[in-house]
Amino acid sequence: MFGPDRRCVVVVGVQWGDEGKGKVVDVLSEQADLVIRYQGGANAGHTVVKGEDQFILHQIPTGILHPGVRCLVGNGVVVDPDTLVVEIAELEGRGVEVEGRLLISDRAHLLLPYHKAVERASERRQQIGTTGRGIGPAYEDKYGRRGLRVADLRDFPALTEQLRRRVERANRLLQTLGVEERVDADEQVALLERLGPRVLALAVDAGRVAHDAIRAGERVLLEGAQGALLDVDHGTYPFVTSSNTTAGGAAVGAGIGPTVIDAVLGVMKAYTTRVGNGPFPSEASEADSEKLRTLGGEFGATTGRPRRCGWFDAVVARYAARINGLTDLAVTKLDVLDVIAPLRVCVGYRVDGEVVTDFPADAGRLERLEPVYEELDGWCAPTAEARRLEDLPSKARAYLDRLEALLETPIRYVSVGTRSDQILEVK
Ligand code: GDP
User: Fold this and answer.
1) pTM here?
2) Which of 53, 332, 423 most suits a substitution to test ligand 1, by most atoms within 8 Å of the C-beta?
3) DSSP per residue over 248-314, as a string?
């Protein structure tokens, strides 16, 4: 992906998240100098397999697993100090050096236990299928202009006063939501007293660090979390996340200008999954869904929740290609389809008497639509050992060619297993 004209690259998810971005970013991090997370929080997590070891990263960029690569948590992320410190300790416990390589934006918002309490209570009513990690309420506070930021840790007395007011507000909300749970202000102050200095030690003007790296000609990777269909503006609202997961969000959330981004790589599974509630047009029958789930190990990295599984949806992916301005594609989990035949690809939606190929905005249409499928031959042969396009069965290549044609975007990588060597790069 990187080259003389490609120094700043964004990696985004094309579907509903869990596309295998962790693995792709891990492979690309090998060539990067700086890796930046730009949105989201300590949610689902990216899974990276290193030899016999498996790492699940929640807030820290995947680049941390590569010695010498520096990592930034951008201003667009909501930082949970509690889980951040645990994540750092876990990585260090497993021999990953974090000190001196990880920095956090002082403009990032803090996610605190009262956000989690509010989310748990709201989820009972709204049933979005959130992870209960407080990410939604933390973003609500940010946009409601009552958020607390990393920089606020520099004036602890003033922060304490603000924090007490936030806790009072959270308790009023909890009462309105009809739950008995209340948040204890002293506990939240004590938590920040304990963890604040550790977070502050990592705090910098992250946009400046990114800018300087780009100016110096370093290779910078912007690592997105979740996927296009979970974007708060472009996703299946309201069953979405609370931030912009698409490439435009990368510039805002990292504190750089959009003009310095050279390429956008979209990561997509060879089929589709979705976790949580909400529209999913190409969802397979229970039997096929179960098959894909078992073969693909489709269970949440953090929560263990089974994912809903379906066929590749070209309407979704084309939409994602457009709103992200994708320059390249990475197809993951091709190996999962090795034993499935025939294969289906959704190429349009039949709704209200017409076939549409643009992703509809309204929930009503999404509910009424019927997917239009194209059937393709399965290849019924193992792909896990393929390292060049030519190593793949011809029917697997035909499948990839069809996806490429439908998306009008070149496939740059094909992943055929969990390990970092199980990938082929198309030159
Ligand atoms: P992310 O959030 O987009 O990084 O996705 P997750 O980490 O939640 O899920 C990806 C899962 O698929 C992880 O368990 C990966 O190890 C695994 N994975 C990634 N690429 C491949 C692949 O090409 N084949 C198979 N079989 N598994 C893969």
Assistant:
1) 0.95
2) 332
3) HHHHHHHT--GGG--EEEEEEESSEEE-SSS--TTBPPHHHHHHHHHHHT-B-TTT-PBPEEE-EEH
